[in-house]
Design a protein that fits this description.
The protein is globular, with a radius of gyration of 23 Å. By secondary structure, the chain is of the alpha+beta class. Helix 1 packs antiparallel against helix 2 and helix 13 (357-371) runs antiparallel to helix 14 (399-419). It contains 15 helices and 18 strands. 49% of the residues are buried. It folds into 4 domains: 6-95, Uridine Diphospho-n-acetylenolpyruvylglucosamine Reductase, domain 2, CATH 3.30.43.10; 103-221, Uridine Diphospho-n-acetylenolpyruvylglucosamine Reductase, domain 3; 225-333, Alpha-Beta Plaits (2-Layer Sandwich); 337-460, Alpha-Beta Plaits (2-Layer Sandwich), CATH 3.30.70.2740. Strands 5-6-10-8-9 form a 5-stranded antiparallel sheet, with helices on both faces. It has a 4-stranded mixed sheet with strand order 1-2-4-3. It has a 4-stranded antiparallel sheet with strand order 13-14-12-15, sandwiched between helices. Helices cover 33% and strands 21% of the residues. The protein binds D-malate (MLT) and zinc ion (ZN).
């Protein structure tokens, strides 16, 4: 990056003067923001802009444009596709809305919450709960991940099964555009048929066409009761039948359905302060939760009895206290391969039609074993949504072997995913990591339309360049 040029030095001193010491940090102070959560992508930047308001975001974007610099926006830096790390040789300013973390309004009459982009997911959950409402998005990084990042990636997590992804929560947005203008679309109307639904363009756009600064989001009734169970499957082949049973009894009670492998349980119990949920050892477990009226606890106990009678599960436990339940969900939070195993792993965030998960796992593990015999295929995730997190690891071997064959493994996995009617990005976005791999998975016209939108909204390619959008095909 040409950080040392006169133009870059002028840009830096102008931004430092505009934003003040709280609002501008030099590269030496932001090392942790220049590496992604998994340690796969390392970048560099002229510095970190920490604007305190929408107007300051706008000024940063305009100033960068005047000096020909790019802007990469980063929330909590918990992304898993490398979309928020400034990699590349263009002069780039990293921008974070971390100082814009106000919850501006919880409106119980409308069941909405209005907040700035830098607020954490956990802060939104807590503010909603104290008004007797539910802010539904939830995933392991809730304490660090921000609203802006969640919207930019259309984040998912464990509650999507009942409440949908971030997209389903967003009623209105405020966005700073690539030329610095501010679009105030902070409307809170569940129905609005007055033309293109522009907010949808910015959700999942990964910072490439605008910077989300504020949002109005849907809240849901806070369930008056919930209960969690951990069950040991007789075999993976019983997953579909258990899911069908759990969805039906009683209808609408199921709010989470997560697949957990024994390899993951062993790993997190060894590494973290987590109690093994049951002495029965099986290859696969399901962590499931019922939420709703107080009777859901009894319904869950009934479900386990039926599943056991039907031979779908060999054991099960229903959490009978908050610490017991917290232990089960902590186990789930720590399953991500970076936390549970550490080190290098080839990681996939896949969606497969839910009834084909078993088939996928059989085919994918066999394909991996054929390429690298002693590699470990590690899978867990939100299988109620068909979303499986699949990581290939070499826990006791040489990571360099894995790195060498990673392209072959990826080609094999992608083929299986496409054959089964899935996608290679369920909830983590495309970022830098997947933008080339997505080519061939969708009709080229979809990429053309996406490039047309990018060119219209960011004609000079200033916002998060080289992220999400694949390069045009060579003519
Ligand atoms: C999760 O569900 O834990 C996250 O998506 C993280 C991961 O895939 O590792
Ligand atoms: Zn996930």
């Amino acid at each position: 990056m040409s950080g040392g040029s006169d133009t870059s030095r002028e840009l830096v001193s102008e931004l430092a003067a505009l934003l003040g010491p709280e609002g501008w940090l030099p590269p030496d102070d932001i090392a942790d923001r220049l590496v992604d959560f998994r340690g796969v992508f390392t970048g560099s930047a002229l510095g970190l802009a920490r604007p305190a308001s929408t107007d300051e975001v706008s000024v940063v974007v305009r100033t960068c444009a005047a000096y020909g610099a790019s802007v990469v926006t980063q929330g909590g830096n918990t992304g898993l596709s490398g979309g928020a790390i400034p990699v590349g040789d263009r002069p780039t300013v990293l921008l974070t809305p971390s100082r814009m973390n106000a919850i501006e309004e919880v409106n119980t009459a409308r069941s909405t919450i209005t907040a700035q982009a830098g607020v954490t997911i956990q802060a939104l959950q807590e503010a909603a709960a104290s008004a007797d409402r539910l802010f539904a998005p939830d995933w392991g990084a809730r304490g660090t991940a921000t609203l802006g990042g969640g919207i930019a990636t259309n984040a998912g997590g464990i509650n999507v099964l009942r409440y949908g992804s971030m997209r389903e929560q967003v009623l209105g947005l405020e966005v700073v555009l690539a030329d610095g203008r501010v679009w105030d679309g902070l409307r809170a109307l569940p129905k609005d048929n007055s033309g293109f639904d522009l907010k949808q363009l910015f959700i999942a756009s990964e910072g490439t066409i605008g910077i989300v600064t504020r949002a109005v989001l849907r809240l849901h009734p806070l369930p008056s009761a919930h209960r969690t169970a951990f069950v040991a499957l007789r075999s993976l082949g019983d997953l579909d039948a258990l899911f069908a049973l759990a969805r039906a009894r009683p209808p609408g009670a199921l709010s989470a359905f997560e697949l957990i492998p024994e390899t993951g349980v062993r790993q997190v119990v060894d590494r973290f302060d987590i109690v093994r949920p049951m002495s029965t050892v099986a290859d696969w477990y399901v962590l499931l939760r019922f939420s709703g009226e107080p009777g859901v606890g009894d319904a869950l106990i009934d479900l386990l009895a039926t599943a056991s009678d039907d031979g779908l599960i060999v054991d099960g436990v229903v959490a009978d206290s908050t610490p017991h339940e917290d232990n089960l969900w902590l186990l789930r939070d720590e399953l991500t391969a970076t936390r549970s195993f550490g080190g290098f792993g080839v990681k996939y965030d896949l969606a497969i039609p839910p009834d084909r998960i078993e088939r996928f796992l059989t085919l994918a593990s066999a394909a991996v074993a054929e390429i690298l015999a002693d590699a470990l295929s590690y899978a867990f995730g939100h299988v109620g949504d068909g979303n499986i997190h699949f990581t290939v690891l070499r826990p006791d071997g040489d990571d360099r072997d894995l790195e060498r064959v990673a392209p072959d493994i990826t080609a094999a996995i992608d083929r299986i995913v496409w054959d089964l009617g899935g996608t290679i990005s369920a909830e983590h976005g495309l970022g830098r990591e997947l933008r080339s791999r997505i080519v061939g998975q969708k009709p080229e016209i979809e990429f053309e339309l996406m490039r047309t939108i990018k060119a219209a909204l960011d004609p000079d390619d200033r916002l998060n360049p080289d992220v999400m959008l694949p390069d045009p095909p060579a003519r």
